[in-house]
Fold LysM protein.
Amino acid sequence: MTQEPASYTHFSAWDKEYSHVKWGGAAPIEPIRSRIPEGCRILDAGSGKGRHLLPLSNFYDCTGIDVSPTALKASREYLAKRDREAHHSVSSITHLPFADNSFEGIVCFGVLQHLMKNEREKAVAEFKRVLKPGGTIFLEVFGIKDMRYGGDAVEPHTFVRQSGIIYHYFTKEEIENLFRDFGILDIKDLITEKKFRGELHTRHMINGTIQLASEIDAKIC
């Protein structure tokens, strides 16, 4: 278990962001349900206002973490209104406050893209530490062909917006390299067209299902 740093400047921007981000409704979780048995422990790493945490809580022992106390407060309220429960913790994914081998699954949708290079590496190392052998990570990030690519560059393919939030755009190969110490990688480019103000623009997402290798055939849960 590693100690949370005093602060990351761009992390603090998220609390302001979540003060006006509206609840987007529960997100689909079918890919997770198809791989992780009910009753397992799942970490929603960067859970925001609980879009995935709410439906996951119907089937799993869930923990949601986020750097924004505002987001987690809203998440608690949404779950309580629907008579659902989940653990919540204010934490970054670079320094997870959990023991080794704590979770059978980790959900990380739209989060790694908001970190600098050294932070992304720390986060992946933490995922490996807290994930049980044979456990699975469900990942989604922005790709470099996305219409939103660009801004004030701070690192390769990494930009800072006026809000102070970091945006990094990945290649499939970068994700494969970042998770090279894991066992099974299923990484896919998802490229679609979106009409914006009458013009077509490219949306590029990269999805991953990543399993931590085990020396034995571990049966999770």
User: Anything to note?
Assistant: The mean pLDDT is 91. Strands lie at 41-45, 61-66, 87-90, 103-109, 131-142, 152-155, 158-160, 166-168, 184-196, 199-211. The chain has one domain: 29-211. Residues 117-130 form the longest helix (14 residues).
